[in-house]
Amino acid sequence: MNHQRHTTEANSEHPNEGRARSRWWAAGLAGAAGLALTAAVTTGITIPGVDAVGRAVADDQLGKAKGTPAPCDTDRLIAEITRANAQGGAVLDLAAGCTYLLTADLDGAGLPAITTPITLNGGKSTTLKRSAAAEEFRILTVEANGRLALNHLTVTGGKISGDTDGGGILINPGGGATIKKSKIVENVSSEGDAGGIGNIGGALHIEHSVVSRNTAANIGGGIFSIGATLIDKSRFDANTALTGGALTISGRLTVTRSELVGHQAAEGGAVFFFGGTTGTIADTRFAKNTTTGAGGSAIAGAPLQLTVSRVTVANNTATGGGQGAIFLQGGAALIEDSVIKNNVGVDGGGLYNLGTLTLLRTKVTGNQATESGGGIYNSATGTLTLLRTKVVENAAGTDGGGIFNEVGGTVDLSTATGTTVARNRPNNCVNVPTCLD
Question: Which of 27, 89, 169, 341 has the least CB density, counted as fewest CB within 10 Å?
């Protein structure tokens, strides 16, 4: 048995920012995502909190019965997880107020890999933490057929380098995790992807939780997920990466009743979608996120289909050549019943569109572009449709205060539906025949 210390004192370790472009940019990622999406079905496993196609299940299906006590002793916790794996699963009740300080590397993690259904229940101030003096390793790994449930726990201090992902938690193909009322904070992937959580071919469900101050050198500061990802009533803040400060997604994403605040990345300040991905984001707030490169301070990428409903995108900033708070690089997106306001970019203060974008009952207001398209920039490859939408009081440094349409792009204002483009500076539109200045 590995002898590890435990303590009731928690020490913070601040991560370094990411440096290099990810290997996941290689061709074939979309195909890998497709395989990952079917992993739960083809292996016949059941993910806690997520059904075989990645949908949330009711709380009462998760089971909340008291389990085996795991006192405030790291060696005892390791022994209980090892026993649970051997016996086909268990519910373990960790001690409230305890920091289980991990000091030994158990095949890349501080705790034994999860290979069966295991629930770890914490309490007030229960923490799983890598010792700052220990070698680099993540906190938890979930293997194929492993089903991890975390309740009322903090996962912190994980740090990895080299050709591996998931500074805090790694879910391998065919595995799954449900994280409820927990915190994933200050974990680092110093050379790879997924500072907080890496889901590489499994299913991930996060609810009533916080993912904060995690760092990845490449993609997915908070989370990098290939597979089904469901997030509800959770907060992401101050995660950093080269691409996708909070989330980088390849597969299927559902985000509801959450907020993503204060992230930084060169592309996709809060969320980045790889091509072929489908996504739904509803009743969620994006604020004070920043990009320093290609753009998309709130959302970027080329999803196959993205639906955004009742969302506020406000006070996000794209600098250093960045384009738009929402940067649709391809694919199709519907934004409905939402507000896009007070964002700043170089071209397209609010939105920059290279794909097929529809705005329905949405308000684009108070956005600024240092060059063109204060509210919206529609590229030569873009198709933009506005239905019952208001583009008002936006400003551009050069032209197209409301909408700038490149030659070749298509813009349909659908003014008969009540669309309004007005009070923008220095003018309302460029290359939009039905727009009145």
Answer: 27
